[in-house]
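Fig. S4 source data, part A: sequence.
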Amino acid sequence: QGQEKLSCNPKKENGTHVVLCELGNPMKAGARITVDLELSVSGLEDMGDAITFHLQLRSKNSPSPSNASVTVTVPVEAEAEMELRGTSLPATTVLPTSWQGVEGSRRLEDHGIKVEHVYELHNKGPGTVSGVTLNLAVPHLLGDHVLLYLLELGTEGGMDCSHHPALNPAQV
């Protein structure tokens, strides 16, 4: 007939998390009750791709063979939004048209103007992420001419990094 909020209490039984909800008494014989449950579960990062709930309706009255149970499996979908930010230092560089590199030199200034590119990958949530791969393609050649001389590649924050073999080929 009407709607009532249930009083539910979490507890542990035999290593299993149990939530016990009291529907109330007394109920008339043959009464039909519909119950909608909304569950909020945290810490699902390592649960795999689904979580299973075992639901059972029990009566405190004399033992009844109609203590029905049902198993519900709900898919787990992690959601996290990633954001990539990047800057160049200096922000603008003008290359002279007649500039020529000094072949065989190991001095940085003989190979061009230093430009540093910094990229930051941020997790905006709400979930945590792992196993993220960022592929960054940097055009280092323009035809047969060196456009950008890739000197070094570094990371911070416990990331692994692999790079193209064209990194610092002249060992400057």
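Fig. S4 source data, part B ends here. The chain has two domains: 7-75, 78-171.
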